[in-house]
Design goal:
One of its GO terms (molecular function) is metal ion binding. The protein is mainly alpha-helical. The protein is built from 16 helices and 2 strands.
Length: 370
């Protein structure tokens, strides 16, 4: 745990250092652009840094730079891997900014989302036009700026890597991740609207497809592969991390889906039942619908996606979902997915010491409480 905390501190420092180099580029154009940097700092100051940690332990899993570490785990941390891990965190921040706009989410981590911050700035300044339109447009541009910066920071790290071919493979993994999470986001908004015309028997698989491409790959699998590729991992090693990362990423998102419906706002930083207001057609909903009576299913479909849902209506939907057995089924899927992930480490080229760290992370990302 101490080494993971050290990595998180280094990632924080690398992000701060990077933003310091970009601030004068932005503010030299005009002082009224300062909010772009200030809001970037705000959205990059928090979070659990799971993606950074998976990237780092993917790198460590290859034995990169092992010197005097505990049980074969290096205490040496190279600049390229910290830059890559930090780039993933900036990419994640960009994805969250865009995701909140798409989902009309007012909050993020217990505070205003980016587009709401811009809305507030507009209102306080007495500017012309619509606060909402300005907030959305400015939020999109902030997300775009962060996306570009994630690429720049990654390139800085890869340029310092001792193995140019390994750096190219890490870049290829990052590029694939970027494409997959973008199409995964599209699949998410597609399912919110297209579910009505799809066969009931296909809704579970379609919801699972969203999980895989929107979250599982970029939250767990891709960071592991980027770190390992940067360390020069071979095909067998990368395959073991793929087999571990994908089911763990699925379990991670299944837990997140439960939190999106039942989570405590004080813990999640989002209003309780937020996914219900947004109309998310998650695996949880796909499992609940077939088990409901016709009237209960009709009520679920009618209320899901109503942004004006009252607390009482959310309570009714939560109870309906629980009584369907869908929550218990999700918990079973989480357990099975974690077991599949851990099984993939058995007999793999990954050392026992790093395997233990990956097992700790698996517990952490899938046992978050309501």
């Amino acid at each position: 745990m101490a080494q993971s905390n050290q990595v998180i501190d280094l990632v924080h420092s690398r992000i701060d250092e990077f933003l310091e180099t970009r601030q004068p580029i932005v503010t030299a154009i005009g002082a009224d652009l300062t909010p772009l940097v200030d809001f970037s700092r705000q959205f990059l100051s928090g979070g659990k840094r799971f993606r950074a940690l998976f990237c780092y332990w993917g790198w460590q899993s290859v034995g990169a730079g092992v010197t005097a570490g505990d049980a074969g785990v290096s205490t040496v941390v190279s600049e390229p891997i910290i830059s890559a891990a930090a780039a993933l965190e900036i990419f994640h921040a960009a994805a969250l900014v865009h995701d909140d706009i798409i989902d009309n989410s007012d909050t993020r981590r217990g505070a205003a989302s980016a587009h709401k911050l811009f809305e507030g700035m507009h209102g306080q300044s007495g500017w012309a036009g619509s606060q909402i339109e300005f907030g959305r447009a400015a939020g999109i541009l902030l997300g775009d700026l962060l996306l570009g910066w994630s690429d720049e920071l990654l390139d800085e790290g890869l340029a310092a890597a001792p193995d140019a071919s390994a750096a190219l493979r890490a870049r290829a993994e990052f590029n694939r991740m970027r494409t997959e999470v973008t199409v995964g986001q599209y699949l998410d908004i597609l399912e919110e609207r297209a579910w009505l015309t799809q066969p009931e028997a296909e809704l579970f698989d379609r919801a699972l497809r969203v999980i895989v491409f929107k979250s599982a790959k970029y939250s767990v699998q891709a960071p592991l592969l980027i770190g390992a590729a940067l360390a020069g991992a071979g095909p067998e090693h990368l395959d073991a991390l793929r087999a571990f990362g994908l089911p763990l990423g699925v379990a991670f998102q299944l837990r997140d889906d439960l939190l999106g419906v039942f989570g405590d706002a004080a813990v999640t930083g989002k209003p309780s039942g937020d996914d219900l207001r947004e109309g998310k057609r998650t695996v949880l909903i796909a499992l609940a619908r077939p088990q409901l009576s016709d009237p209960a299913r009709a009520e679920l479909d009618a209320l899901l996606g109503d942004p004006q849902l009252t607390e009482a209506q959310i309570g009714v939907l939560q109870q309906t979902i629980i009584e369907s057995g869908a929550v218990d089924r999700i918990e079973e899927l989480i357990v099975a997915s974690v077991a599949e992930a851990l099984d993939a480490l058995e007999g793999s080229p990954i050392s026992d010491a790093v395997t233990a760290k990956l097992e700790e992370l698996a517990e952490t990302v899938t046992r978050r409480t309501f």
